[in-house]
């Protein structure tokens, strides 16, 4: 295999605010990728019949299931909002250091609000289950 | 000065076409996922998720199965490309890297195909009103 260009190795950067947000984007992306297994599991259960679906709901409504769902809601909120920040960078905007710091703060605060809203809707809003 | 790059600078850099398309597909799927994931989240919040019949009816209603298939395709593609980049960056050993890349791609294809098939299966069985076709054939 020939040597091909890769992203610069993490060792070359000085640790900073923008670097932390970049690592978290990566981590949340991977966490969400694992969530694809849950999406598939849920759809298979719904396709397989009432008994399978009931047992899948029991798993997803259990302690571990609820913990994972909460984690995915957090990861999704961050990845979505920071993804918008990435797409804005790709248009060549917001790349100045001060702007990148400002948008990082906005993303962190907005993530807490959005994830809070999702968690409220998913666990506390009293939609008939 | 010539605008043409010297051959020595190009060799071994990989195919430019592939690299560009990877970057673009990652962005295009990211943009598609903004409305798709928000639609999906909104629908899930309003569904009585423990209700088997209600969930199946929702999957089979109107354009929902079409949007679900588009969502599954976009999210699996985006995720597959994303995980690929992460593996390329962090798995140093060449053999392990190839195995990890193949495993990730294979798993993504399996998840996308199986969940798409589940959506279609729900639509078909819902139409057949209780008679379960197996592999698109009726079993009595
Ligand atoms: C909701 C809308 C989404 C948007 C706007 C979005 C946006 C992005 C963008 C712009 C990137 C490239 C970041 C870079 O340049 O390094 C990216 C990477 C990634 N995304 Fe998403 N994404 C979304 C949803 C998802 C979902 C649902 C998953 C998983 C199922 C996912 C998994 C990943 C992964 C694994 C990466 C690679 C991370 C990296 O290279 O550091 N994304 N996303």
Give the overall shape of chain B: elongated
Give the rounded overall mean pLDDT of chain A: 89
**Classification by helices and strands of chain A:** mainly alpha
| Overall strand count of chain B | 2
Report low-confidence residues of chain A grouped into runs of 5 or more: none
Helical percentage of chain A: over 70%
Which ligands occur here? protoporphyrin IX containing FE
Structural class based on helices, strands and sheet pairing of chain B? mainly alpha
Query: What is the percentage of strand-forming residues of chain B?
Result: under 5%
Unreliable residue runs of chain B: 135-140
Biggest β-sheet of chain A, characterized? none
Note the total helix count of chain A.
4
Features:
heterodimer; A: 129 residues; mainly alpha; 3 helical TM bundles of succinate and fumarate reductases; B: 140 residues; two-stranded antiparallel ribbon; 5 helices; 2 strands; 3% strand; elongated; disordered C terminus; binds protoporphyrin IX containing FE
TL;DR of this structure?
The complex is a heterodimer of chains A (129) and B (140). Helix content of chain A is 78%, strand content 0%.
Structure, explained:
The complex is a heterodimer of chains A (129) and B (140). Chain A has helices at 17-48, 50-61, 63-90, 97-124. By secondary structure, chain A is mostly helical. In chain A, α1 (17-48) packs antiparallel against α2 and α3 (63-90) runs antiparallel to α4 (97-124). The longest helix of chain A has 32 residues, at 17-48. The mean pLDDT of chain A is 89. Chain B is an all-alpha fold. Chain B has helices at residues 7-10, 16-46, 52-60, 64-90, 94-127; strands at 133-134, 137-138. In chain B, a hairpin with a 2-residue loop joins β1 and β2 (137-138). Bound molecules: protoporphyrin IX containing FE (HEM). Protoporphyrin IX containing FE sits between chains A (25-26, 29-30, 32-33, 35-36, 79-80, 83, 86-87) and B (26, 30, 33-34, 37, 75, 78-79, 82-83, 85-86).
């Amino acid at each position: 295999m020939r040597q091909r260009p890769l992203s610069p190795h993490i060792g070359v950067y000085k640790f900073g605010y923008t670097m932390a947000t970049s690592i978290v984007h990566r981590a949340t992306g991977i966490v969400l990728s694992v969530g694809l297994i849950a999406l598939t599991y849920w759809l298979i259960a719904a396709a397989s019949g009432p008994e399978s679906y009931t047992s899948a709901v029991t798993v997803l409504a259990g302690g571990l299931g609820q913990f994972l769902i909460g984690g995915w809601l957090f990861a999704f909120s961050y990845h979505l909002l920071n993804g918008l920040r990435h797409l804005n960078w790709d248009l060549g905007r917001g790349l100045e250091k001060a702007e990148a710091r400002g948008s990082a703060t906005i993303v962190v605060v907005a993530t807490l609000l959005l994830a809070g809203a999702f968690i409220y809707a998913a666990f506390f809003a009293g939609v008939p289950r | 000065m010539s605008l043409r790059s010297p051959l020595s600078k190009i060799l071994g850099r990989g195919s430019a076409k592939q690299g560009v398309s990877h970057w673009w597909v990652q962005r295009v799927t990211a943009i598609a996922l903004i409305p798709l994931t928000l639609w999906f989240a909104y629908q899930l919040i309003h569904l009585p998720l423990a209700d088997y019949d209600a969930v199946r009816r929702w999957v089979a209603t109107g354009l929902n199965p079409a949007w679900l298939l588009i969502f599954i395709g976009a999210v699996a593609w985006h995720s597959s490309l994303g995980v690929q980049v992460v593996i390329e960056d962090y798995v140093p050993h060449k053999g392990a890297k190839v195995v990890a890349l193949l495993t990730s791609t294979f798993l993504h294809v399996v998840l996308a195909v199986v969940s798409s098939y589940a959506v279609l299966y729900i639509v078909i069985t819902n139409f057949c009103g209780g008679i379960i076709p197996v592999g698109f054939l009726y079993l009595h």
